Amino acid sequence: MRATKRHLANITLVVKDYDEAIDFYTQKLGFKLVEDIDLGDGKRWVLVAPNEGQCNVLLGKAVGDKQKAAIGNQTGGRVFLFLHTNDFCEDYNAMKQKGVIFKEEPRKESYGTVVVFEDLYGNLWDLLQLTS
Fold it and tell me: Tens of pLDDT along 78-123?
């Protein structure tokens, strides 16, 4: 029996505005815009991804009070996403220079170098370079 191959393709991130989210992820984090397709009625299919990413972030504009309440707190205050890098210092300094807000100073852990930052809505991310 052949094993099924699966991978995580997209993760939805609820945002207030498509264009401000695209700007943050492409200009401040250096992600690429993978797709931006007009679906009509104010909806768009917007995918951004790190340059070497295997998983895209789908920027989904919040509709209704329940979704709007989740903006910036999709995980109840826990770190939401983990951005791996092979050059922590370069990425950290570039992001800091572009105005990304870091919640702490970088720290060394047994698994690598890590720092928590927030996106434009306050969702928490880890920038992480794993120990080889």
Answer: 999 999 999 999 999 999 999 999 999 999 999 999 999 999 999 9
Q: What is residue 106's three-state secondary structure?
A: coil
The structural domains of the chain, ordered by start, are 10-130 (3.10.180.10)
The DSSP secondary-structure symbol of 65 reads H
Q: How far is CA 87 from the centre of its chain?
A: 17
- Burial letters 40-72, b for 16+ CB under 10 A, else e: eeeebebbbbbeeeeebbbbbbbeeeeeeebbb
Encoded tokens for 7: 């991978």
Structure tokens at 119: 């996106």
Q: Which helix (H) or strand (E) holds 19?
A: helix 18-23
Answer for the pair 68, 22: CB distance below 8 angstroms, yes or no: no
- Say what the pTM is: 0.91
